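In the design runs reported in the main text, the only information available to the sequence generator was the tokenized backbone. The following block is the verbatim input for one such run; it is reproduced so that readers can re-run the procedure and compare outputs position by position.
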């Protein structure tokens, strides 16, 4: 290979790129601006997380529904607002003013206690929710279940309504002709014990007053929320993922311009004249891939460096793995640009199709939002994309704090894609426009 000619061609490409200041600015500033926006949205800071907006429509108005609503209002994870009824709650959720709404039906207070002891129909709590906020609705459902069980069980074991329901249930058990005698005795003993407990709890100084079981069933555990990052005490930095994703995207956007530039030069006859020079065709293609890789690496270092300097992005894992991933992805991007030139017919058509393809690659690769949010089948399928390996690898060596062993497989896959793209480019490249 003619090293002097190769280096001259690479220097020519770099000089042309830096001569267009607007293109340089967009290539470097755009990923930084978009990454900062996505990082702010997905920062993961619990101190900045807003409580879930919840509406409560109490059509029952009973003591139990009022107490459950009060407990929901006191929950730090919720921001509760009362509305007049189900129709108003539905309209507010439809307009996107709340993530969810709880509707207590009429006679909820009485029906819930009866259903606690017997086989009566359970009152139906309606949880209206915004379909785009399913995760928040699931969280509301869990919180609601906890408060309903605590309030209803307390009423069943120590409240006046619980006493009435227990006596009615005992009367039905004793008069049910279809109930086997053995079961009748067991259930009767159980209900008499409940009534006896209710009598004791109602007395001054009883178990209900001292906070015993008559105070209602409680969740039998406490939960400690501990985010698992590179090391204990280091919080998750959402900017690390967003800067990785935007670096991945805009490196490919720059690769599109590299490839389209080749097509423009071919149309203008520059490649025909270069082909007549004493330089092998492979050197010409390799020089474009090398210059594209160098410019891609520059974009990567500037974008990630800005995230480190301004937004606290840190390499918590292997620095060598971080550099290996950046270099491997840059080589892949350079080969991708040459492949676009080999497969494309005209600059105009190639640019449009390539932009669409790159957006799909980045979106499905987890560059916009983490791939863990995808459905399980899509999460597995996207492992066939180079962008997925690049984003996951950069996540591993930044906020996850993993070592070189987690970066090398991803870097190897990226280099394999670079080889594949290079082979396709060498196979399909045309020196003349069709």
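Verbatim output:
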């Amino acid at each position: 290979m003619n090293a002097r000619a190769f280096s001259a061609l690479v220097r020519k490409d770099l000089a042309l790129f830096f001569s267009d200041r607007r293109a340089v600015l967009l290539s470097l500033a755009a990923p930084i601006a978009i990454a900062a926006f996505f990082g702010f949205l997905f920062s993961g800071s619990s101190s900045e997380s807003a409580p879930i907006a919840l509406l409560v429509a109490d059509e029952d108005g009973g003591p139990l529904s009022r107490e459950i609503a009060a407990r929901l209002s006191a929950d730090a994870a919720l921001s509760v607002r009362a509305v007049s009824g189900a129709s108003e709650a539905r309209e507010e959720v439809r307009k996107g003013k709340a993530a969810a709404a709880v509707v207590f039906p009429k006679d909820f207070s009485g029906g819930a206690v009866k259903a606690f002891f017997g086989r009566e129909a359970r009152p139906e709590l309606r949880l209206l929710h915004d379909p785009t906020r399913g995760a928040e609705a699931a969280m509301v459902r869990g919180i609601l279940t906890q408060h309903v069980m605590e309030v209803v069980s307390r009423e069943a074991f120590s409240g006046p309504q619980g006493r009435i329901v227990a006596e009615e249930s005992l009367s039905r058990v004793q008069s049910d002709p279809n109930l086997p005698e053995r079961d009748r005795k067991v259930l009767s003993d159980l209900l008499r014990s409940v009534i006896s407990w209710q009598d004791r709890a109602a007395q001054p100084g009883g178990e209900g007053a001292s906070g015993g079981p008559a105070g209602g069933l409680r969740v039998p555990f406490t939960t400690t929320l501990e985010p698992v990052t590179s090391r204990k005490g280091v919080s998750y930095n959402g900017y690390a993922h967003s800067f990785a994703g935007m670096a991945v995207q805009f490196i490919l956007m720059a690769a599109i311009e590299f490839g389209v530039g080749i097509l423009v030069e071919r149309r203008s006859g520059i490649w025909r004249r270069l082909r007549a020079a004493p330089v092998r065709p492979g050197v010409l293609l390799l020089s474009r891939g090398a210059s594209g890789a160098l410019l891609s690496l520059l974009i990567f270092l500037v974008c990630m460096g800005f995230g480190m300097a301004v937004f606290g992005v840190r390499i918590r894992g292997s620095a060598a793995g971080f550099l290996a991933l950046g270099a491997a992805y840059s080589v892949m991007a350079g080969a991708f640009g040459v492949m676009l030139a080999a497969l494309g017919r005209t600059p105009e058509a190639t640019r449009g199709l390539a932009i669409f393809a790159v957006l799909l690659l980045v979106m499905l690769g987890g560059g916009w939002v983490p791939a863990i949010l995808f459905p399980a089948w899509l999460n597995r399928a996207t492992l066939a994309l180079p962008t997925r390996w690049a984003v996951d690898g950069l996540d591993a060596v930044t906020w996850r704090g993993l070592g070189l062993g987690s970066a090398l497989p991803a870097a190897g896959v990226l280099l394999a894609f670079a080889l594949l793209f290079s082979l396709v480019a060498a196979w399909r490249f045309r020196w003349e426009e069709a």
